[in-house]
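TA notes, week 10

Several of you asked for a full example with nothing omitted. So below is the full record: structure tokens for the whole chain, then the designed sequence directly under it. When grading your own attempts, check the secondary structure regions first.
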């Protein structure tokens, strides 16, 4: 037993061993609180390293917001990548229940990421210009996690690897993802295993090249959406995959509008066209047939034709 006091308050601390680890117990606000010399909150979350990772390159107070905003975005990207790889594994194992559940989690993360741009939008043009010159060529274009996520979702661009050539480990990881089937490629392989006529050219190919839309793939998705009761699990999967792109594009749009609000039409710090470059990205599609198929869908004919004159309507 031990006693601790602060400002006249005396607290009794009980010491004991639990599974060979020295453990402590005290009554605090009517609750029995325990802690030990093993795994603590700070050790588990590595808070000392995490909270010491904000290293401004200027003495301007608004740079801290800029750093923390981008660091938290990188953490969310890390989680999305983690979850997306679980989706790929589930698709490979024909485990649609886990694939759908994980895609739903990703969608929730993405909505949070979209909303978080509003924090950065509090950085006014004046605020940003106080430290922008200190950033030199550092740019979000160099985010290797963002690049990995784009590769994993299917936007393959081998030329973009050159930006990461100074980091051998990162370059190697990105090269591996570039040369592996994307999440969408795995979904198409799943459709083929289910008996849909997916072209051989879309089941075995050079995975490092950009995806080319296929009418046959569009036909397969259309068949699923035209008979959802028969193909309910594939229909549910398709909607979650569509949401993945839907929210990704919303995140891109919010990014573009935030940049426009902060720097206008200036070039990016890394030399890109800034807002105009981000606008171009909005035209990219990861899962093209899931979008084009919707145009071909038709409603079943029910009831009279209201374009006919009243006396000509079929009963």
């Amino acid at each position: 037993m031990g006693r601790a006091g602060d400002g006249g308050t005396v607290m009794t601390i009980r010491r004991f061993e639990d599974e060979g680890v020295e453990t402590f117990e005290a009554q605090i606000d009517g609750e029995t609180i325990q802690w030990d010399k093993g795994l603590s909150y700070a050790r588990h979350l590595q808070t000392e390293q995490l909270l010491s990772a904000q290293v401004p390159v200027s003495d301007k107070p608004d740079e801290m917001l800029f750093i923390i905003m981008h660091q938290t975005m990188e953490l969310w990207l890390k989680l999305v990548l983690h979850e997306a790889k679980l989706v790929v594994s589930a698709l490979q194992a024909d485990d649609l229940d886990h694939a759908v559940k994980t895609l739903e989690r990703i969608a929730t993360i993405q909505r949070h990421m979209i909303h978080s741009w509003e924090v950065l939008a509090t950085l006014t043009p004046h605020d940003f210009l106080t430290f922008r010159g200190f950033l030199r060529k550092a740019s979000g274009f160099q985010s290797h996690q963002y690049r990995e996520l784009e590769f994993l979702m299917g936007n393959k661009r081998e030329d973009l690897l050159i930006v990461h050539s100074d980091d051998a480990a990162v370059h190697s990881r990105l090269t591996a993802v570039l040369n592996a089937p994307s999440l969408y490629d795995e979904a198409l392989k799943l459709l083929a295993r289910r008996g849909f006529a997916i072209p051989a050219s879309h089941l075995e190919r050079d995975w490092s090249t950009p995806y080319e839309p296929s009418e046959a793939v569009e036909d397969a998705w259309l068949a699923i959406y035209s008979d959802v009761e028969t193909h309910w699990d594939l229909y549910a999967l398709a909607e979650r995959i569509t949401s993945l792109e839907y929210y990704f594009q919303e995140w891109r749009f919010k990014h573009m509008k935030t940049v426009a609000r902060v720097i206008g039409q200036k070039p990016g710090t890394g030399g890109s066209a800034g807002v105009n470059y981000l606008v171009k990205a909005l035209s990219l599609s990861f899962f093209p047939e899931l979008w084009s198929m919707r145009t071909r869908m038709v409603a079943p004919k029910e009831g009279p034709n209201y374009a006919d004159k009243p006396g000509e309507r079929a009963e």
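The radius of gyration is 26 Å. Use that as a sanity check on your answer.
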